[in-house]
Amino acid sequence: ENLLKIYDVAFQQTVAEQSSANNTLPNASHDTFTVNNVTETIYTRDDYPLDKCRTILQQEKVCVLGYGPQGQGQSLNLRDNGIDVCVGLRKNGKSWQKAVNDGWVANDTLFEIDEACHRGTVIQYLLSDAAQIEMWPVVKPNLTSGDALYFSHGFGIVYKDQTSIIPPTDVDVILAAPKGPGGLVRRKFLEKSGINSSFAIFQNATGNALDRILALTFGIGTLNAFETTFEAEVYSDLTGERSCLMGLIQGAFKAQYDVLRANGHSPSEAFNETVEEALVSLYPLVNENGMDWMYRNCSTTAQRGALDWSKKFEKAVKPVIEECYASVKSGKEAEITIAANKSSDYREKLEAELKEMDEQEIWQVGKILRELRNKSISDTQVAK
Hints:
Layout: E1 23-24, E2 32-35, E3 38-44, H1 50-56, E4 62-65, H2 69-80, E5 85-89, H3 94-101, E6 110-112, H4 113-119, E7 122-125, H5 129-139, E8 148-151, H6 155-158, H7 160-163, E9 172-178, H8 182-190, E10 195-203, H9 209-219, E11 222-227, H10 230-242, H11 247-262, H12 267-289, H13 291-296, H14 300-330, H15 332-342, H16 346-358, H17 361-383
Parallel strand pairs: 4-5, 4-7, 5-6, 7-8, 8-9, 10-11
Antiparallel strand pairs: 1-2, 2-3, 3-11, 9-10
Helix pairs in contact: 1-9, 2-8, 10-14, 11-12, 12-17
């Protein structure tokens, strides 16, 4: 029996708008919504159109430190949106040439980190958590009264007892955290779309931190901005990475795949029923329409089984996620991460761990089936 009974019309459906005394969708101006008596404010591009962002930032020099996925995506989006921006990197490091290839010009819009910080009034600190700790003695002396120190992850600030990243009291400390990797931030921008971001203010020294952070948040291509705190962003982000976003998914995928293989199912069948159908067929529909819609649009066999077993899985998994959250909040996860990055052989150990995952049968099969899928799509397009 097919898992889903989905008709073509399903792809045109939208989630029915539902409301109750405790649950309402955003109002006509899309600025608030309420769930279980908790009301949140949403800032949209209507609140901060690009012209307004440019006006707020017209006296600013934005300095983006780091050219990993977030540094690259955010700096290019800001530049394309007409914001005065430069990039700070280690001279002739592996990211330097990548930045040059993207049009950043040495000694004009591309500088070594110390010089870039000296020029900037807004320092976007987008180095890795480990590199932020290492470079803080260079960055801190370049912060002057009225500057803004910007993060896309609150790790360095929240775990300041371990990172020693303690900003001066006379600068704004702000955060914009896109809900996706930097490559997606850039791709959605080029598609004239965008992704959601959360934003936070840790220190409002100038009294203008809100305008500053929202102008930057929408300057990097955000669709909607949701307010949070540095602590909440870090606790939820680290828990998510270790659980539903990566750690739990890898563990669940591998467990189901191994059970199917141990019971005689072929590699392709085990992969298709574990990964392929989830990522290619079902998860996109959950994203478009919601999990409740998915349950209403599947076979009765799938529906009954999923309803019963979801409660068992919730009961089994929730204590593990609670343990994970407690470890994050206590600082233990930060301690583990910082210690690991300080190890002289960390890169070698990391590559060994990643190689072990890469060589797991589930992902070896995945590579083969993705190639077949992509070839079939390509052949179909050529035939047309």
